[in-house]
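Case study.
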Amino acid sequence: MKPAAFDYFRPSSLEEALAQLAAAGESAKVIAGGQSLGPMLNMRLATPSDLIDLNDLTELAYIRDVAGVLEIGALTRHDQIAESKLVQARCPLLAQAARTIGHYAIRQRGTIGGSLAHADPAAQFPLIATTLNAKIEIVKLGGQRSLPASAFFQSVMATALAPDEIIRCVRFPKVAENEGTSFRLFNRRHGDYAIVAVAATVALDDDRVSRVRVGLSGVSAIPQVWDDAVRPFVGRTPSAAWAAEVALAVRAAVSPEDDPRISAVYRKELTQTLVERALVDALSRAKG
Ligand SMILES: Cc1cc2nc3c(=O)[nH]c(=O)nc-3n(C[C@H](O)[C@H](O)[C@H](O)COP(=O)(O)OP(=O)(O)OC[C@H]3O[C@@H](n4cnc5c(N)ncnc54)[C@H](O)[C@@H]3O)c2cc1C
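After joint prediction, the assembly is written out as follows.
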């Protein structure tokens, strides 16, 4: 199919894009990498009156270390994030997850802002942003606000973004020196969206686990962090047995829904296996 007719704009600055978005009204849409919106336009699942193309806004394509935080502009491509030495050093969880998104061609075009705004529940960046509680910086004509990922994602493909708002950048906390992180996913074919994915972080102090965080996608409508399930395991001596116990507790806590293709029990089993493997990886990285 072909998209329904729309008016096309290609602004050369963020100010211009925001003004066009405000003037066009609620049925306008911005397009970044086009890897999700493109198919939706073709299938007429999205029929915007106006399409505002962000691809000339080079001011939104950057990766910076700003005051101890890793700041990534919304127009930064998945592949730039995966390959960035700064991201690999400051937020290895994000780089590791970015490498697993779709296929090479998708990673060359897809952007972090587009992935967060699209909010597919199985997508990598929403999971990492939620697990690390990244801050999403949002702008509109004459205004701006900052939302933690925990308030940004609302339901399947639904976020707190208003129609006249654009994501400007995302701020991720940097990995601590005593911390290790790991990302694991399971999908049926290389490049498919994950059935279940796990992001884990573990910090050690004096050979005890001082902090552990486990985020999951594929078991609920939006990515979720399982702090209550893992809290009893803080303060314990880290080991493979510890990772197995945490994974069992997380498995007991999740309650995915059955769907026609994948049973809830299968998702629970994947959860246990992936959480255990991610924690073993994260522990070995935390130990250095
Ligand atoms: C075959 C295939 C496989 C894929 N596999 C995966 C996968 O395994 N994991 C994964 O995470 N993703 C996957 N994707 C999706 C891919 O990562 C997309 O690039 C991403 O979801 C959307 O980013 P984009 O820049 O292409 O956004 P677009 O498609 O341009 O836009 C998506 C949505 O975000 C909005 N938007 C874009 N930029 C902004 C902004 N700065 N501010 C506000 N709103 C904005 C648009 O209006 C639109 O609603 C896959 C895509 C395809 C086609």
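Observations recorded in class. DSSP finds twelve helices and 14 strands in the chain. The pocket of flavin-adenine dinucleotide is lined by residues 29-37, 54, 74, 101-102, 106, 110-111, 113-115, 117-118, 120, 123-124, 161, 166-167, 193 (CB under 6 Å). We will return to this complex in the next lecture.
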